[in-house]
Amino acid sequence: MIVIIAALICALALRGINVVATWLNEQQVSEDAILAYRQTLLRSSPHHVVIDDLFDADRLQAVCAQLKKNEQWQTQKHSYSALYVKDATWQKTPSSERFVQRDVWQRPPAAQPAALSTEAPLSSETASTETVSSETATANVAAEFLQYLRSAEFMAVLSRIFAVELTDRNVAKPDINCNYFRLGPDDFVNQHADDSPGREVCMLLYLNENWSHQQGGELVFSGKYQKPVRIAPLYNRCVLFDPSAKGAEHWVNPVHRLANDDQASLQYRYNVTSWYWSE
Question: Which CATH superfamily is domain 25-56+73-106+148-277 in?
Fold first, then answer.
């Protein structure tokens, strides 16, 4: 049903019919909620806030369905001294220098709007063309969500929580600062900091339906006074933090293969990472 609704919305959009559908759970962005997030952010160490159910769960399920297609993922490897390390160099890189090994999502080509009338009935040929177009648009629902995370509407929400104006005006390539990642039992994200000049907010959103404690994969902040902060990567859980805050260095605990997992049914740990800047 969710995929059908998404297909209908995308098909209408392709025919030039404007359909307004927010990604946000409106109850979670009320004035009272924003104030509570702000207070939690300021009291916490490091400065962070965990928001469950921030986004519309049904729409996220359509995204999750798309992310389970293996052909749209590519392995990404970073060392502490270089990003996007090639395999030959990686093999020579000591384990202590390896910072990240994970899969990154590959955006599909943008769907091209079909030049269709919204008044005349569809011929069988046109209907067939629109079916293909709507399927393509539905496949792009994951890309649509990434675009929303860079929208003025969503950045306005973050700006209110962090009391700073966030913008992409001076960001050369916003797309590379917002994407999906997945981790399996052989992957890792070791301790690192996300601070960078002008970078004000880091957002992590977890897309792991039916995730259990036994699977591991917790986000861990180093924290202050040797008191790490651990956060489970539960479905529709959003973590917002100030990357320059003391104790904001973080890593991901290993993902564990469950006893009944095989390669065909392996459950990955999925998340969105998005960074935001001020002027």
Answer: q2cbj1_9rhob like domain (2.60.120.620)
199-206 and 269-277 strand pairing = antiparallel
Beta-bridge partners for 272: 180, 205
Give dist(CA 123, CA 146) in Å, integer: 34
Using CA atoms of 16, 17, 23, 29 in order, give the dihedral in degrees to the nearest 10: 120
pLDDT tens figures, 190-213: 999 999 888 999 999 999 999 999
pLDDT of residue 232: 97
Sketch the domain layout of the chain as residue ranges.
25-56+73-106+148-277
Beta strands 48-52 and 237-241, pairing class: antiparallel
Rounded to two decimals, the pTM is 0.83
The two tokens of residue 185 are 């039992």
| Region of 155 on the Ramachandran plot (φ > 0 left; ψ -120 to 50 alpha; else beta) | alpha
Query: Which residue, among 37, 64, 63, has the nearest Cα to 49 in the 3D structure?
Result: 37
The b/e string for 19-37 (b: 16+ C-beta within 10 A; e otherwise) is eeeebebeebbeeebeeeb
**pLDDT surpasses 70 at 222:** yes
Over range 260-266, report the average pLDDT. 61
Q: How far apart are the two ends of the chain, measured CA to CA in Å?
A: 42
Query: What does the block give as tokens for 23?
Result: 């990604």
**pLDDT over 50 at 115, yes or no:** no
Q: Give CA–CA dist 47/243, Å, rounded.
A: 8
Does 247 score more than 50 pLDDT? yes
Instruction: Give the pair of three-digit tokens for residue 249.
Output: 């260095």
Q: What is the pLDDT of residue 119?
A: 42
Q: Phi/psi at 36 (nearest 5 deg)?
A: -65, -40
The CA R_g of the chain, rounded to the nearest whole Å, is: 20
Helix (H, G, I), strand (E, B) or coil at 92: helix
